[in-house]
Write a structure and sequence with these properties.
By secondary structure, the protein is an alpha+beta fold. The termini are far apart.
């Protein structure tokens, strides 16, 4: 039993020694994707921006936060804010929310009956922490609400 452990330790130490002998060889080789060798083409116009050569064309880029009016997500369970369950002020609904994160970093809540209220206790950081990745972009608010089932 003790010889098996000693043999395993010896094999491990030999593998470490072999790796250490290969390490100096790799330290002198340039990395395979060395960006310092490739130079981006310089644009000819003075008012054009310098763009990396491997950047996506404009048709394939996703909209940025400034390009959209806001983001929305479903929140089916009760919404707990600071230890209390949040209810809609006009109707008293406490679940099945649509949460909006607007361009100005405000968070709005919409219940199933369509009442919308601004929630100052929530912010963009909360929204980003609790939302998943963006899966659809919708041209109108009604399209987005239909997609989310409201």
């Amino acid at each position: 039993m003790f010889r098996r452990r000693a043999r395993a330790h010896r094999e491990f130490r030999e593998a470490q020694r072999e790796a250490l002998t290969l390490l100096p060889m790799h330290a002198h080789e340039p990395p395979p994707f060395d960006t310092s060798r490739t130079e981006a083409p310089v644009p000819s116009g003075s008012d054009t921006e310098a763009v990396a050569p491997d950047f996506l064309p404009p048709d394939f880029r996703a909209p940025t936060r400034q390009d959209v009016a806001g983001f929305m997500m479903r929140w089916d369970q009760p919404l707990v804010i600071n230890g209390e369950v949040h209810a809609c002020p006009p109707c008293g609904a406490y679940r099945n929310w649509i949460v909006f994160n607007m361009r100005d970093d405000s968070v709005w809540l919409r219940c199933t009956l369509g009442h919308e209220t601004k929630e100052p206790r929530l912010d963009t950081a909360w929204y980003n922490h609790n939302s998943g990745p963006v899966d659809h972009f919708h041209p109108t608010l009604d399209d987005g609400l239909r997609h989310l089932g409201h």
